[in-house]
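To whoever is on call:

I kicked off a structure prediction for a single chain this morning and the downstream step that reads the tokens threw a length-mismatch warning. I double-checked the sequence; it's 254 residues and nothing unusual in it as far as I can see. Pasting both halves so you can look.
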Amino acid sequence: MSRIFLIFLLSAALHPGQAAGKSSPLRPEPASSSPLPPSGRDIVKKMHDRFTGKWYHTLTFTQTTEMYRNDSLRATQTWHEFIRFPDRFRMDFGPADSGNAVIFRGDSAYRYHNGQLRSTTINNNEGLIFLLGGMYFYPFDQTCRILNDSLHFDLTQTREDNWKDRPVYVIGKEGANQLWIDQQDLYLVRMIKADNQMDARFENWQPFGGGFCETRCDFYIKGKLIQSEIYNECKTDITLEDRIFDPSKLNRSW
């Protein structure tokens, strides 16, 4: 039996009306749908699996801070910064003996002028410390709860996009808080906060101690650049003593 005739018999058996000369309209094949992006939890799991137990514990650097108003540079300062993950952060403004500093511990910020404590406020930098390394020092489920419930990034809303010619995951829906994550290296390249219309961009990432460190940050409010930060002399996993982060007395940071 020829192969053509066999195909005809199989076709007649499966489609008897068509074999009898009755034509049936051609139906277009359904368009193939693009695969769904991973969920927010899946993206965070990738990040957690990649860096937990490998990320550096401490980071110090000298920062050139440029402040802008109405698109014009109005001031340039040198800051010295000290981080001990997951939740210790200190910034000294100017020389070490100036006594001008802020210490962040957990959810509190302690601000000093000329060595004297001037105010204690809520730590508005807590989210950044968490997102830029602190998240790898908490269990995965706790990390997701902090992201979703405390920092208000909706892990159920995701999409894929491109940022500066690199593919990214975007966590959070349009018009709400968003995290933009580099798909290859799994670090944060952009954070959007809807409440104050802030757009924070993290660039020039460099590998350090089993993780990465951004070496430039640009902060925009309502589309206007307000501050640029350039890191120099980055060092990781050096000992940072408890006294550096002790708010009861401002000690020299180095």
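Update from on-call: the warning came from a stale cache, not from the record. Cleared it. Sanity check on the structure: The helical segments are 3-14, 16-19, 40-51, 126-131, 140-150.
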